[in-house]
Amino acid sequence: MSGITTHVLDVSIGRPAARILVTLERQNDKGWEKIASQETDDDGRARGLLSDGLKSGAYCLTFDVGSYFDDRDIKGFYREVAIRFIVSDASQHYHVPLLLSPFGYSTYRGS
């Protein structure tokens, strides 16, 4: 399993959000470097974002929620959700869920 995973739940319908494009980036001395992109599966999960070993540092998960809502003919407020976080212990697993609705979102460090 990837050292960084995510799970998107569309709380407006009480179901996982499938086929949201998720991009993982890591900050380096030149800015943000794209590591991977993956669509969430039917269970709203992206499990294979990080094929190389996890390193300490700043990371960003960006979710293309605009396309997700457009595909469902839903007028949403956000086009993207970007979650920036710090990996301080690379031996741990970092699960970063996104709870989503057309006009709001929340996130937390999961397990």
How would you summarize this macromolecular structure in one to three sentences?
The protein is mainly beta. The chain contains 1 helix and 10 strands; from the N terminus they run ββββββαββββ.
Note the overall shape: globular
Low-confidence stretches: none
Output the structural class: mainly beta
Q: How large is the share of residues in beta strands? A: over 45%
Task: Give the integer mean of the pLDDT values.
Answer: 95
Number of helices: 1
Overall number of strands: 10
Compute the separation of the termini in Å: 13 Å
What does this structure look like?
By secondary structure, the protein is mostly beta strands. It has one domain: Immunoglobulin-like, CATH 2.60.40. The chain is 6% helix and 47% strand. β3 and β4 (31-39) form a beta hairpin. The longest helix is centred in the middle third of the chain and has 7 residues, at 65-71. The protein is globular, with a radius of gyration of 14 Å. The chain starts with a strand and ends with a strand.
Features:
single chain, mainly beta, six-stranded mixed beta sheet, about 110 residues, Immunoglobulin-like, four-stranded antiparallel beta sheet
SSE inventory with pairings:
Layout lengths: L3 E7 L4 E2 L4 E8 L2 E9 L5 E2 L10 E7 L1 H7 L9 E7 L6 E2 L2 E4 L2 E4 L4
Parallel strand pairs: 1-8, 1-9
Antiparallel strand pairs: 1-2, 1-5, 3-4, 3-6, 6-7, 9-10
